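Per reviewer request, we include the raw input and output of the structure prediction for the construct analysed in the revised manuscript.
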Amino acid sequence: MPDDADARRLRNLRRRVARAKCFPDNTSAADRHVHLIAEILAAGHSYPMLAEEPQHCAESMLWTLLALYRARNRVQALEGPTVTSRRIRRQCKRALGRIKALEVPDA
């Protein structure tokens, strides 16, 4: 049984997904199938098709992931590369510190 924080987070996520859906322009059959699975599971019910036709459910999920990854790649191509990893940012900060230490002050 989810606690109150989990329930609030799930309600908020479901509401955000519903607002972003923009049916039918922004969805595909696979997206709608995955959304249906998620809504039924989020409501605390079982989805018999997961047991009866797991391959079909997996295909819907994989098509949805493919579309998501392609969209993210397009966005990244438009925006340019971004550094999101903390480790990479720390490495860059250390490298900049070393470079500054090597700089000779203007005389």
